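Internal tracking record. Fields below are filled automatically when a chain is submitted to the structure queue. Please do not edit lines marked as system-generated. If the sequence contains nonstandard residues, flag them in the REMARKS field before resubmitting.
Queue: standard
Priority: normal
Entity type: single polypeptide chain
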Amino acid sequence: MTCIIAHSTIIIKLSKNKSLFVGRKVELNRLDSIYKTPTPSLVVIKGRRRIGKSRLIHWFASKQNPHAFWHFSGLAPHGTMDAQSQRDNFAYQLAGHLNLPRVTFTDWSDAVVYLGQHLKPNDIVLFDEISWMGDKDPSFIPKLKAWWDTQTQSIMAFFCGSVSVWIEDNILNSTAFFGRVNLVITLESLSIADAYRLLTAYGFQGSDYDAYKLLSIVGGVPWYLEQIVPGQSADAFIKHLCFEKDGILVTEFDRIFHDLFNGKSSVYKKILHCLSDGMKSLAAIRTALEYPHSGTLSLIMNHLIVAGFVEKQQLWSFKTHKPLKQSLYRIADPYMRFYLKVICLHRHKIDAHAFRDSAISSLPGFDAHIGLQLEQLLLQNRDRLLDAIGISPADTVACGPFRQVQTKTRSGCQIDFLVQTKTNTLFICEFKFKRREIATDSIEQMTYKLNALDAPKGVAKVPVLFHISGVSDALAVAGYFYRIIDITDFLNANPHSAQMRKKF
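SYSTEM-GENERATED OUTPUT FOLLOWS
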């Protein structure tokens, strides 16, 4: 079984008859190789809601065998949902594929066997939101496994879903499908370059600054980006999504947690609210929530990690290069953080249409919020950060946001992005997201962090500045920073083309 963690693929609809597919060449090549094998193939694709899982499979199928693609999707959970409802929905979709009257199935074995009778070699079958299909029926997985074990034709089946924990527990870590999965793909957010390409393909014409403002809120989630209206300004787009009563991102948070965690969503939401102010240890989360000492909280945190909403930052020893026992948790999804820090706090005003005639920039601290959002976005693109600094991942001991807690013997400090290399060098990186030029006062700010950071003797500390707004001549000639990196270059796969775009 091969596992791939990848940025999402998207189809950009340019017209009724033409589409442009962006990214995911490696994944498509792997799928192509598996598809050409003369045996049945099983692929698992998981990832965050709205990330483009189904779209990737549809694109692949359209290029391989568009007339033999079977798509079945589970029903989103609701109060009256039961196993028979899912089987009836499957039967309804199957009847549509076959152009035949619907058959009623009272057992999943009958349903998948009936499907198998109509499959031909090289057919592609997608079980979309598979967790919803099987969540109410404990026999679903055993019966699906029994059916799959009978396959002799060279069909290709996809198990796909947003409830990654369910997929991990019931398929990937289950004895039922042990040794039967040919490929696992975990879809992540689009890279900054691909997200920007999607934005512009849908008609976004704003400046680099405005592009980053958008991306810092919605991240690289394709479905969110696709909502832009051609010619619409960044502020208008943000207002439409986030500050109108029925805005997509106003209601999205509750919808996600209802669909993914159903009746257990309350504790998951509380944890994210707890993390909205910054990184915390498991002990700090437990104390804040007054949660009992048991293994349950660790399990819940893992669920949020697998879902793509939280990241576990393992601390490490600068001296030994080995992980420490302590780790910190942070919100990894830009939209989640923006909802909790901004949308949620103004929800009552949004519901009362308070922002209908006002500019979002008038919100207290809005620009500061956007700056913090940028950090989340850049941390989703660590490979690009390392490349810009000039560090190979193979030479990296560890990297990530870093927080040093203040004690009696040392000062506290917060570092946006810290990288340690195998040559005992610490790159201390600062992210600046401002409309005005970065001045020499940034040297003083960085110097404080360099002095505060408790590192052993022999470890070099190297300052790096990431910015979007340009730097003053005085800062440029000071020679203080090892590198001063303009992140507008990240908006294009070819950095040399960045100079051709508008910055503001």
